[in-house]
TrEMBL record:
This is Type IV methyl-directed restriction enzyme EcoKMcrB subunit DNA-binding domain-containing protein. InterPro entries: McrB_DNA-bd. Pfam families: MrcB_N. Residues 10-101 form the Type IV methyl-directed restriction enzyme EcoKMcrB subunit DNA-binding domain. It comes from Fructobacillus pseudoficulneus.
Length: 104
């Protein structure tokens, strides 16, 4: 699967999958794995990718992040690139985010 295919899969299937349990869900697993399998050889060894479909319950806006491990390995500190899906799955946004939870 390519990065594009992963994004399209989330956009096309997320709303239907939200009616199913999140535990052991294939789409939730796809989001948690991020682009790690898609981008094999595309990223350098210090780049990792993972995302979230929610913890225990489905997220309103799932996301997939791309992290430079020299800067951060977490979404709660540092800065990183994130693909953020709109709640109605009509759009996906690419943004540069800064973790804030670490500071509170």
């Amino acid at each position: 699967m390519t990065i594009r295919n992963t994004i399209e899969t989330v956009l096309n299937e997320y709303l239907d999958e939200k009616s199913q349990p999140i535990k052991n869900n294939a789409l939730a697993k796809l989001l948690r794995n991020g682009f790690s399998e898609d981008a094999e050889g595309l990223f350098t060894e210090n780049i990792v990718s993972f995302g979230s479909a929610g913890k225990g319950n489905w997220a309103t806006a799932p996301w997939i992040g791309v992290f430079d491990t020299d800067i951060t390995r977490s979404a709660v500190r540092g800065f990183y690139i994130v693909y953020l899906f709109s709640s109605d799955m009509s759009r996906v946004y690419l943004s540069l985010n800064q973790g804030w939870t670490f500071f509170s």
